């Protein structure tokens, strides 16, 4: 028979391992930042459909392996925001039909903004910040 301390330790270890296996990854749905990380290193973006686990203000190549660092509104450097986004190659790589695989294209940012930095209606300027790309695109909400 196992001593009580060993049984307790074994139980805590098994609970800890099973909790770690369920850790959310970038792009998973969420309703609060604690759904994404108990340590506070990931945030839940509630402006996205069913929430979106992400890291804000990412550095080049600074996202987890399943994600890419994307610069949004890159046409206006003072407005640019960086987020880790779930990496994908095709739409089916994204979690639900509400998301699709978007390929960032820096060329779309060139000569598209007027002198005040405003893009034409319906156009976005989102670029890949990573210098080493692990995927062709990132999972983003599908346009309505």
Structural class estimated from helices and strands: alpha+beta
- Mean pLDDT level: 79
Alpha carbon gap, first and last residue? 62 Å
Task: Determine Rg (CA atoms, Å).
Answer: 19 Å
The ordered string of helix (H) and strand (E) elements is: HHEEEEEEE
Number of strands: 7
DSSP helix fraction: 10-25%
Number of helices: 2
Assembly form of the protein: single chain
Order of adjacent strands in the largest pleated sheet: 5-7-4-3-6
Strand content: 15-25%
Biggest sheet details:
5 strands, antiparallel
Short account of what is shown:
The protein is of the alpha+beta class. 15% of the residues lie in helices and 20% in strands. Mean pLDDT is 79; it is low at 8-21.
Write a structural description:
Residues 8-21 have low confidence and may be disordered. Helices cover 15% and strands 20% of the residues. The radius of gyration is 19 Å and the shape is globular. The longest helix is centred in the N-terminal third of the chain and has 18 residues, at 4-21. It has a domain at 56-141. The protein is built from 2 helices and 7 strands, in the order ααβββββββ. The termini are far apart. The chain has 144 residues and is of the alpha+beta class.
Labels describing this entry:
two-stranded antiparallel sheet, 15% helix, 144 residues, 2 helices, alpha+beta, 7 strands, five-stranded antiparallel β-sheet, globular
